[in-house]
Amino acid sequence: MPARRWIRWPAQPVQYGWSIFLGVPLRQDRSKSELYLLFHACTALYALVPLAGKSGSVPLFVGCFCIILTMYGGGFATIPAYLADLFGAKYVSAVHGRLLTAWSAAGVFGPVLVNYTRQFQIEHGVPQSEA
Q: Smallest Cα–Cα separation from 11: which of 69, 98, 84, 76?
C-alpha cells in the first residue's frame, strides 16, 4: 500500500464527521440532549476500546476509533455554533481561539503525562507489559 494512502486514511473519518455533524448547528431546535447523547456515546466507545483490544477483534477496535474520529471532526464543525449560543456572536472568535489553544496544549502535554505515569509505574515494580 502506498505511503500516501496510509497518511490520508486517518483523516477520512474526521472529514466524514465534519460533513455529518455540520448540519447539527444549522438546526434551530438543537438541545442539550444532543450534546449529552454525543458525550455518552463517545464515553461508551472509549470504554469499549480496551475491551475490543483484549478480545482481539480488529474490526471492532478499528470501528470504535473510526467513530471516535468522526465525532472529533463533528466537534470541529459544531463548536463555533455552540460557542455563539453560550457567549454571543461577538465573542466567538476569542473564545474559539482559546479553546483551540487549550486543545493543542492538551494534545502536547497529554501524551507526556501518560509517558511519565508509565515510567513511574515501571520504576515502582509494575511489569512493563502491564504499565
A: 69
pLDDT at 45: 84
Task: Let me know whether 17 and 46 are in one domain.
Answer: yes
Give the pLDDT confidence of 29-42 residue by residue, as tens digits.
555 666 677 778 77
- Shared-domain flag, residues 69 and 100: no
The pTM assigned to this predicted structure is 0.57
* 96 contacts 83 by C-beta, under 8 angstroms: yes
Count Cβ atoms below 10 Å from residue 41 Cβ, excluding itself: 13
Contact present, 7 and 57 (Cβ < 8 Å): no
At 10, is the secondary structure helix, strand, or coil?
coil
Q: How many CB atoms lie within 10 A of CB 70?
A: 21
d(CA 30, CA 34): 7
